[in-house]
Predict the 3D structure of the following.
Amino acid sequence: MAMFLIRRFGIMLLTALCLTFIVFFLTNLTPNLEKLARSEGSVRMSDAQVASWLENNGYAQPLIVRYGQWLGAMPGWTKEIDGETTGRCITAAMPAADAPRFCGVLQGNWGQSTVFKRPVSEILGRALGATGWLMLWVMIIMVPSALTLGVLAGMREGSRTDRVLSTVAIATTATPEYVSGVILIVVLASATAGISPILADWGWIEGRTLFQGTATSAMDEITFWNFGLPVITVALYGMGYIARMTRASMTEVMTAQYIRTARLKGVSFRQVVIRHALRNALIAPFTVIMLQFPWLLNGVVIVETLFNYKGFGWTLVQGAGNNDIELLLSCSVVAVVVVLVTQLISDIGYAFLNPRIRIS
């Protein structure tokens, strides 16, 4: 197990370096840098002025050198301009005499956002915290519901219950979040359509809508009425996929020889399902559930934008739309780390759950 973990950590490190370098290369293409220069300087800057701005801000160096400086593996750039020393590690709070030589991601310096005018680490910390709450409640609702649907459908393959639940699972998976989200807003959060006007006329709800169509207020205080719709929207899409995987695994287990032997020995159907079939049927869905974490982190882009919830997905959209290079790079690092860590946990957990798997 120790050698397995060492190899996996080595592969994770190499993968992270490769992926972050690709993102760094794409975000630092010449058109993006020129756009950055004009947005930070002036839109009427000439080509010579753009080149001068890039030179004075360290963007004229070779790509691999700038990647090393951003990563923190190489000393930050410095430059003398009108007798004043500037550089990557030199800020108003950190003069040249006290500035460190290395100031990259490895040192905890994620850069400064050109859009929000704040440290990227501060922005990402708040955004990840908000998305973390969203992911937590989605998993609390999605996983038990999906497992219940899958087990009930797989217990009796081909029955009416199986057909109904399988249809529901396929329908939820086939409906994108931007469709189900809009439908939920119209039905539950519209003052002119859906059931909210009816409930308001009957005096059953206060105000004109049952739910809030925006989750912005949930950034300060989470309630069922301002956080319910985004959670349900994300959970519905992922629930069907887990339910289908659980149903397929449960169906396979229920036809196994040891299940038939247990039934022939007179064990009740309920005991067969709970004590013998359920544990083995949940081995495959475990991997699928673990893979939901990177999907949730990157798949909430649409939902957070739709409900104006300022989490990781909303921050990523703002960074991409405004050419915020430092913010985009930091978001890519977070996404890569989450994907690699969840895959490692999934592999280790699968080996423990399935005794037939041996790590050599």
User: Anything to note?
Assistant: The chain has two domains: 34-109, 122-353. The beta strands are 78-81, 84-87. The radius of gyration is 26 Å. The chain is about 65% helix and 0% strand.
